[in-house]
Amino acid sequence: MLRRPMGAVTRLYSNRLIVMVAVFGVLAVLGLTAVLLVSMRNSRLMALQAAEHSSHTIAQAVTGSVARTVQSVDVLLLATATQFEENSWPANPADADGQLRRLLAFMPHIRQLALIAADGRILGDSGDRRLTAQWDARPYFAQADSGLRGTLIGTRQPGRMLGPAGAPHIHHFIPFFRVLKSRSGQGDALLVAAVNPLHFNDMFTSLDLPPSARLRMWRYDGTLLAGDEDDGGFAAADHAGDTLFAEQLKKSEFGTFLLTDTDGTERITSYRTTANWPVVISVGLSRDDVLSLWRDASLPLLWPVGGLGLGLLVLTAILTRSLILRARTEATLVLSEQVLQTVSNGVAIADATQPDFPLVYVNPAFESMTGYKAADVVGTNARFLHRDDYDQPDLARLRTALETGGSVHVVLRNYRADGSLFWNDMTVSAVHAITGGLTHFVAIQRDITEQEQNRVSLRQAYDRIERYSAELERFSFILAHHLQEPARHIVLYSQMISRALDENADLELRGNLDFLTRAGSRLKDLLRDVQLYLAMDRLAMVGGNAEAEMVLDKEWVNRSVGIDGAEMSSSALPRVQVPPRRLADLFAVLIDNSILFRHPDRPLRVTVEARRQDDGFWRFDFSDNGMGIPPEFLEKVFGVFERLHGREQFRGNGVGLAIARKLVETLGGRISAHSDGVSGTTLTFTLPEATE
Q: What is the CA radius of gyration of the chain?
């Protein structure tokens, strides 16, 4: 009840508040409108940026898939070319055809593989020789002679197989070819792989792009190889004058630009070139479709926002009238009660002025979370929630906060009225009166049982993965070990049979036994290298140090015996924190690699230098003057079973540098290769300096 002397003051306060509320409502509506316009503009820009990012991501993914396919074709052609050029190609036509068919057994994307002599003779054909004989290969000889790479990509040709355009079941293929030089005097030959363009089209259609999108595969010169086609069929049109080839590719090997396509559609186009092949992938998304989707998603939001603006105006009017009728204190209390009743988190308030801090209020969310009714818990302490489960570290922190009048955040195991467990994420805050005295504790509670269960499940999953990984590694190691015995038996019994043959034995049988002996020996070497590679994680890499110079000298003496003119020089090498046996393994791999790939026209020279770094490691530079490594293969040489040369040319299994990398990285260091491909190779690696 307000007395008369207070009336004027109350009316003055109410008038000011009403004006403030009205102005705030109008400004809120104007601000909401401005925010809406800015948001629409920003969302439009974000939609276009998302389309650019999407096209760039698709182009990048497709480029990787296409590059792997092209790489597989190149590897196949190179392997076939090696057989032909080393004079190991079958002379019998049936054997040659069968050899090519076997090569295509695991390459369904290649329709046919044919080897055609310069004079038109068919040296080998996985398909129909009669059709291939009618195919004109002369232009491809000329194109291959002018090319810079061994394997070239031609324009799409008609025909399901190599043959005339009038052959049955006409389709198209993309010819991959290379000219081969035979040492046996057979002359030049053209090796052609007919790649199925549907393989690339299926790859493109699997991306589930919009109908208006265009995904294409080109050659650098603007020739279309696969993808969406202008006339609904195949047209090997020259697109060299298009913006992509005339401008964009001259600036960068990948990028995104706006292109008005041949059908008049403006597209957000991303392109990307493969690293090693003259192939370009372009992805175009219709700009109009992107904006149409943006409008369809954004326009429905205008109605709720308009309704929200209208609601703000109505709320302003209602609140203005409410302020006239109610006092500020009553309105604040009602609002506070509504907030507590509607929040999704449980709220409990305890009286801090009473002994044992009894609850004076709980909201409906608390009742729903715990199963206890307000009438049953008001007036009691909240410890009933954890029952007899006292062995919880956070309970002690909670008691300390209550005793000291502080605030605390804890996670507790609590129990509902039905006895079921739930995890309670609770924040307790102390409330003080204007005078500074402690009056209440307010606890905000959140049920995080599901998160806790997910965390436990995730931890268990990680434990299973670690266990399965360890079992798989152990199985691989044991398998490589036990396979050594049958490999030795293969070699032993092959040699025994060979010795048992008389001098007039079948030469083919003796040759097969020799091949079996070599294959068994190679299998033994492979298993030994795999076993050593897998054992790297098991070998002790700590405890002990070694004199690098002494270990290097010993390994060089043991491994360079019989190598004419081989010399090694080194600077003063340090003591490193590496077990001597492991350091010897590392130097043995590097020395063997230099000896194996030494240059045939110059004596081997090896130089080893070391210098200290600031991170507690020594950097070693192991250099030789051997054959060198082409720059594009510098990272590839560290892969398991990776070889840059044929096994007939150089022995070895392609595991040595992989073992070296694993050994160095297990010690916490890094290793890399540097070469110009001509004058030799430098292997740079880091090892921890000795601390003992």
A: 39
Alpha carbon 451 to its chain's center: 28
CA atoms within 13 A of residue 111's CA, in its CB half-sphere: 22
Query: In whole angstroms, what separates CA 588 from the centre of its chain?
Result: 34
Residue carrying structure tokens 């990787």: 64
Query: CA 596 to CA 599: how far, in whole Å?
Result: 9
Q: Supply 423's token pair.
A: 């995890």
Q: How far apart are the first and last CA of the chain?
A: 88
> Residue 598 burial by CB count (10 A; 0-12/13-18/19+): exposed, middle or buried?
buried
Measured CA to CA, the distance from residue 51 to residue 430 in angstroms comes to 51
pLDDT band (50, 70, 90) for residue 550: very high
User: Directed axis angle between helix 507-535 and helix 449-482, to 10°?
Assistant: 140
At 71-116, the pLDDT tens digits run 888 888 888 888 777 777 787 888 888 888 888 887 888 888 888 8
Q: Tokens for 690, please give them.
A: 């000795």
Q: Are 654 and 643 in contact (CB under 8 A)?
A: yes
Q: In whole angstroms, what is the distance from residue 560 CA to residue 587 CA?
A: 12
Q: Which residue's structure tokens are 């049109």?
A: 237
The pairing of strands 617-624 and 681-688 is antiparallel
Write the burial class of residue 427 (CB in 10 Å: 0-12 exposed, 13-18 middle, 19+ buried).
middle
Which pLDDT belongs to residue 612? 92
Token pair 């309670």 in the structure block, residue: 424
Top pLDDT among 326 and 305 is at 305
Quick count: other Cβ atoms within 10 Å of Cβ 294? 19
Helices 507-535 and 656-666 pack at an angle, to 10 degrees, of 10
Is residue 51 within 8 Å of residue 289, measured between CB atoms?
no
Instruction: Judge residue 470's burial from the number of C-beta atoms within 10 Å of its C-beta, 0-12 exposed, 13-18 middle, 19 or more buried.
Output: exposed
DSSP of 136-193, one letter per residue? --HHHHHHHHH-SSSSEE---EE-SSSS-TTSSS--EEEEEEEEEE-TTS--EEEEEE
Within 254-406, residue ranges assigned H as helices are 287-325, 328-342, 364-370, 374-377, 393-404
Q: Residue 611: pLDDT band by 50, 70, 90 thresholds?
A: very high
Place of tokens 């601390």: 691
- Residue whose C-alpha is closest to residue 324's, from 21, 530, 683: 21
Which pTM value belongs to this model? 0.42
Helix (H, G, I), strand (E, B) or coil at 538: coil
Do the beta carbons of residue 154 and residue 143 sit within 8 Å?
yes
**318 has pLDDT over 60:** yes
- Give the DSSP letter string of 108-139: TTEEEEEEEETTS-EEEESS-HHHHTTS--HH
Chain Cα centroid distance, residue 143: 37
Please tell me the distance from the alpha carbon of residue 79 to that of residue 292, in angstroms, as a whole number: 51
